[in-house]
Amino acid sequence: MAGITSFRARDIKTTHPCFSKEAHHKFGRIHLPVAPACNIQCRYCIRKYDCANESRPGITSRVLTPSDAVERVRALAVRNEKLTVVGIAGPGDPLANEATFETMAAISREFPGLTLCVSTNGLYLPDRLEDLLRAGVRSITITINALTHVVAEKIYSWVTYHGKTLTGREAAGQLLVNQQRGLINAIDAGFMVKVNTVYIPGVNDAEIPLVAWFAGVKGADIMNIIPLIPQAGFESFQRPTAEMISKMRNECAPHIEQMTHCRQCRADACGALGEDKDMELEVLNAAIGEEYCEMV
Questions:
Q1: 286 and which of 75, 137, 241, 295 could share a cystine (Cβ 3.0–4.6 Å)?
Q2: Cβ distance 66 to 34 under 8 Å?
Q3: Where are the alpha helices (DSSP H) in 53-167?
Q4: Span 10-295: which CATH code?
Q5: For 117, left (φ over 0), alpha (ψ -120 to 50), or beta?
Q6: Do 103 and 34 touch, CB atoms closer than 8 A?
Q7: What are the CB-based long-range contacts (under 8 Å, 24+) for 166-170?
Q8: Which parts of the chain fold into alpha helices (H)?
Q9: Where are the domains of the chain?
Q10: Which residues pair with 86 in a beta bridge?
Q11: How high is the mean pLDDT in each 10-residue block of the chain (296 residues)?
Q12: Of 146, 87, 144, whose CA–CA distance to 119 is shortest?
């Protein structure tokens, strides 16, 4: 791929809790909520800031500045030897926020041993891939919920690309083209790539196996089929049952490895998958620990 430096990141898979089922209870991750702006509106998404009472994507207790985020990693790295991954997953789209690149570059310089990753809707991925490389990011999750504009139109209200807000078929077409191009470019560059797909019963049932086929044939590492959380524009829909999710994963497994240990984490999640520790309290405990060590 012209203009993009290639590398290989597959060796970090064994210590990345989101890419390896064996790693998810051995190693920890921290999500840094530095990215509030979003460039698309998914009909199933509600972003909340200042919220400590829910645990789902798009939620954070507060939005951090890049300097606050780096300080948070410092505090946790000192006391948590299982921390291997630093991610940015919102509460908006990381690639729509310059703070993402500033934060990741600073962490890469100070903590070169940590794996850096972002979770994105993929709209800006072809444009910002080189910037991610320069910032030290080596792992990407792309949420792809459809492969055709007919289905995508039902899932997305609008997208904003190059300063223009698009709706309907035009929005769906632009998003799908960029997602697919971004996935291919990221794989060619050597990134570890996970594809997230929200399972919306009655909307993208038939499309999910096509997403699995496309991601698998292009070389993505793993796929994560996520059950819809009924809210916003899909509030009246039913959440797919465990049996439905299992059946869909079995149908997609011949195309690409399936992730089965996702916990649909908050944008400020901390610790091992499923722990969702209070990050504010963790940082406070770390600070208290450091003060105690200095006293003795």
A1: 75
A2: yes
A3: 66-79, 98-110, 125-135, 149-155
A4: 3.20.20.70
A5: beta
A6: yes
A7: none
A8: 66-79, 98-110, 125-135, 149-155, 168-189, 208-218, 242-252, 279-295
A9: 10-295
A10: 30, 116
A11: 48 60 62 93 76 49 90 83 83 96 97 93 97 96 96 97 96 98 96 95 97 98 93 90 96 94 59 51 44 36
A12: 87
Q: Phi and psi (nearest 5°) for 84? A: -125, -20
The CB-side HSE value for 50 (13 A sphere, CA atoms) comes to 0
Three-state secondary structure call for residue 14: helix
Burial of 100 (0-12, 13-18, 19+ CB in 10 A): buried
**Cα dihedral value 39, 42, 44, 45, nearest 10:** 0
Q: CA angle, corner 68, sides to 123 and 75, nearest 5?
A: 115
The dihedrals phi and psi of 121, each to the nearest 5 degrees, come to -80, -10
Closest Cα to residue 167, out of 46, 44, 40? 40
Site of tokens 């059946």: 247
- 270, β-bridge pairs: 30
Inter-residue contact 113 to 135 (CB < 8 Å): no
Q: Both tokens of residue 273?
A: 């998958």
pLDDT at 1: 44
Tokens of 209: 């196996």
Which residues does 6 contact at the CB level (< 8 Å), separation at least 6?
188, 189, 190
Task: Say how many C-beta atoms besides its own lie within 10 A of residue 258's C-beta.
Answer: 19
By C-alpha distance, which of 248, 189, 191, 188 is closest to 223?
248
Q: Rounded to an integer, what distance in angstroms lies between the CA atom of residue 181 and that of residue 127?
A: 10
